[in-house]
Amino acid sequence: MMTDPIADMLTRIRNAVRIERTIIDMPASNIRRGIAQVLKDEGYIWEFEEIDTVPAKTLRLHLKYGPNGERLITRIDRVSKPGRRVYSKYKELKPILGGMGIQILSTPKGVVSDRKARTEKVGGEVLALIH
Question: Is the pLDDT reported for residue 1 higher than 70?
């Protein structure tokens, strides 16, 4: 049994970026789909797809790199953990690295980036920090 599927997803991405892999597979879930959608919308991955496999569906991410192979994701951290949840109001969400990074939040309107949370004026649980 996995106690923290979000941390597992972030670790898989972190490890794949270190060895410059272009495709990552992981078990699918709604929260992972939401995080993948935010990564796609913010330009950190090319695409994600859900593949029907046995016994459960698999989520496949296609990572994105720069024109000369440089990494777009240099750091990816889990903020809110199972033992310590971190919540933030939309007014408290400050741009990461002057807007070069993002925070991923779980809000009542779904999983969104900090930019979208500020425009929609909604706060929530800060899941991850990416830059």
Answer: no
